[in-house]
Amino acid sequence: MTTPATSTAPTLERLRGQLLGHGFTELVPDTLDDVAAAGTGMLIVLPLDDPAQRPEFFDLTVVLPEIVHQFGPDAFRVAFACPPDSAATAKRFGVLRHPALIFLREGRYVGSIEGLRDWADYVQSFARLRTEAPQPIPIPLSVSGARS
């Protein structure tokens, strides 16, 4: 595969290589629904963004395989989407903060974890989401003209 000629390509390619090295599935356009419906266990989807602007993605690629491993080989499957497709994936599931992990069971939305967390919070959230029933996808709200 050739690397696109952009300033972020080397770091994005490195991140992509790490995820593939862990056996995670790369989503290509219009394959999310098929990947989510196939297989057993819960699917975790990681919509990637520019790691040069959000280095937390590198931290997550270290933590995520360890957490998944802690729950056993059949508990979770992991897939990721690279830009620009990842933006549509994040929007589809109401993600407002990156990095984010989206949890799907049999193709249905269960929940998400947004932002980088500490180990205990990830483990607790994974355990909770693993047992929760599917729910409606959140509708992101934008507030225009709000003052902070």
TrEMBL record:
InterPro entries linked to this entry: NiFe-hyd_mat_HyaE, Thioredoxin-like_sf
Highest rank taxon of the organism: Bacteria
A Pfam short name: HyaE
Name recorded for this polypeptide: Hydrogenase
Family indicated by similarity: Belongs to the HupG/HyaE family.
